[in-house]
Amino acid sequence: MIDRRLVSSFDWLLLFLVLALGACGVINLYSAASSFTGAGMAVYVKQAYWFGLGLVVMLAVAMVGPQRLSTIAYPFYVLVVILLIAVLFWGKVIGGSQRWLALGPMVIQPSELARLAVVLVLASFFQRRDQTEPYRLHQLLLPVGLALVPALLILKEPDLGTCLLVLMVAGSVILINGVKLRDLAIAGGGMVVALPLVWRFMKDYQKQRIFSFLDPESDPLGSAYHLIQSKIAVGSGQFMGKGFLAGTQSQLHFLPEQHTDFAFSVLAEEWGFIGGMVVLLLVAAIVYRGIATAYRTKDRQSLLMVIGGTAMIFWPAVINVGMVLGLFPVVGIPLPFVSYGGSSLITTMAALGLIQGVAMRRFVFHRP
To answer: Is 247 within the bounds of a domain?
Structure first.
């Protein structure tokens, strides 16, 4: 029996924003992949199917609710870590990276699930601790370790972008609990000191991407090609865009990865500044709904889940748009709803399910 209070408190505006953004993504992918040849289902049709499945996942997560999700947080986290280890041994190699795992007819990307697993396990970890004062550095060793385990496994694939994304989402959940400013400064200084060590373990192509970001003209036909073509596509769209299916960079295949990492470049070229702003405003509105839900939340666990779910949408959007505009190095992070990708879309919809589930229970009292 479904509690009527849950239905009456359903965030219909959030659902409308998700449907609108999902429709924009499918339409954009129709254009981005319209010139693709070969057998098999069209990319935009696959995205529509994944979006439909994502809606089911979103509603299922929302109906389960944060309290019950906390009971499976650690088992789910362990399962994702096992899948990440399995990827390193039996993963499918695509484009030089071993990130995908074939489970029968379905191919999944466990690194995407790691974001959700980290949010759930950190929310479960912090909600069991009655902490009124800001956390000290030594008190955060265990939660940071919980985030580092999947992050390092993802880095081994190698997938630097998703590794950073997992750490940024985890950082959002940890910082919302409160950290002493002095300890935060020490941690920041430690990260700066560790940069040379991180640089030493980076792959050559990752280092080259950073060099290309700092000086795109140094290798215009090599490592900087993606960035240069993306900026050309975005700039040529100007204010109103070239029109649907009329983008030269995408239709003539100058733009690499135009249906995944650089899908926003296709949108900006065809729909211009106006189209790009519409999509970004939809993303911003979803993030705002998440923050508003967090503000009204009555218990710590729900707050942390909402913050984590919102961070799972905010950070990929910021990094992807910054990447295609040349503000950040190319790290291969998809734009939620706009870029093609089943695992990414399903995980994003699950994050929205966390937000929706808490919004539906905002008038329900939970014991701490």
So the answer is: yes
